[in-house]
Amino acid sequence: MAEARDIPVTALPVTALRRGEGLAAWRQIADALADAVGRGEHPAGSQLPTEAALAARFGVNRHTVRRALAALAERGLVRATQGRGTFVEQGPIAYPIGPRTRFSEIVSRAGRQAWGDLTAAATVPAEAEAAQALGIAAGDAVLEMLTLHRADGTPISAARISLPLPRFAGFDAAYARSGSITRAFAAFGIADYTRLSTRIGVRPATAEEAARLDVAPGRTLLAVSSVNVDPGGRRIMAGTTLFVADRVELVVE
After folding, report:
1. Which domain holds residue 102?
2. 1 has pLDDT over 70
3. Which stretches of the chain are assigned E, i.e. beta strand?
4. What is the pTM of this model?
5. Collapsing DSSP states into helix, strand and coil, what is residue 143?
6. Are 60 and 30 a contacting pair, CB within 8 Å?
7. Domain count along the chain
């Protein structure tokens, strides 16, 4: 991702808006910025000028600029990050779904840096769906984890996963240290694991999910529910991963 930077107002050309033609100023600004992105003036991963700079360029107030940027975010062209600015979205990552689906390997092959963040973990009684997926009784203890997965700092997906206890007690700490599910399993003596089943659905992002993934509420998410097994066929992990639809291209193998 390009380094965040502020572009001086004096470095931006003044763009006159069409007045009195029935086309809202914010829409004209959004169209102008989208056109600039399409021409490569603002390449993928680069930071857009600040709201103040854009307001000066188009001769409008910052509220109008903010509405234009929100419209671009809803279209999936830009991503607003609190405290850092607004960035042009990078192209989607081809994401194979098959017997061996590994986030870190997939992102690395795309030439981007992968990392996973542990956002929450707790020991809880298994709910019916998780229990069935793991082949255990409802109410049995499981380790539930919430994770966020990034490529070059951009959130790609968020997951809620369950692992059976006591076998994986401490897995959350191993994951937090390594930033990788594969490396965390290796710490528990599981050098390889495979996908037993996958279900794919589509739904809009809730406000909470949108905040975690740096998208506008209502953006389309791909919900991928899966079960993984160890080399002996024992079920070791089940959960659902929410992908930002225009940041990945799922490839079913």
Report:
1. 93-252
2. no
3. 78-81, 85-88, 93-97, 114-125, 141-151, 154-164, 194-204, 220-229, 235-244, 248-252
4. 0.73
5. strand
6. no
7. 2
